[in-house]
Amino acid sequence: MSTVTLRDIHKTYVDAEVIIGVDLDINDGEFVVFVGPSGCGKSTLLRMIAGLEEITSGDLLIDGERMNDVPPDKRGLAMVFQTYALYPHMTVAENMAFSLRLAGMPKAKRYERAKEVARILQLEPLLDRKPRALSGGQRQRVAIGRALVRNPKVFLFDEPLSNLDAALRVQMRIELASLHDSLQSTMIYVTHDQVEAMTLADKIVVLQGGVIEQVGSPLELYHHPRNLFVAGFIGSPKMNFLPVTVTAVNDFGTTVSLPGEASVTIPVKPGYVSIGDRATLGIRPEHLQIEPNHAELTGEVLVVERLGGETFLYVKIMGGDTLTIQTNGDNTSLVHDRVPIAIHGDLCHLFDQQGEAIPKARRHHLTLNESQEQEAHEQSYQPKLNY
Amino acid sequence: MSSTLAVQPNQRTSSKRQVSTLPLVGPSVVVLLIWMIVPLVMTLWFSLQHLNLLNPDNNSFAGLSNYIALLSTPALWISIFNTLVLVGSVLVITIGLGTLLAVLFNEEFWGRSIARLLAIAPFFVMPTVSALIWKNMLMHPVNGLFAYITRSLGFGAIDWFAQYPMLSVILIVSWEWLPFALLILLTAIQSQDDEQVEAARMDGAKSLAIFRFITLPHLGRAIAVLAMIETIFFLTIFAEIFVTTSGGPGLATTNLAYFIYLRALFEFDVGGASAAGLLAVILANIVAIFLMRIVARNLDV
Question: B209 touching A, CB under 8 A?
Answer without folding.
Answer: yes
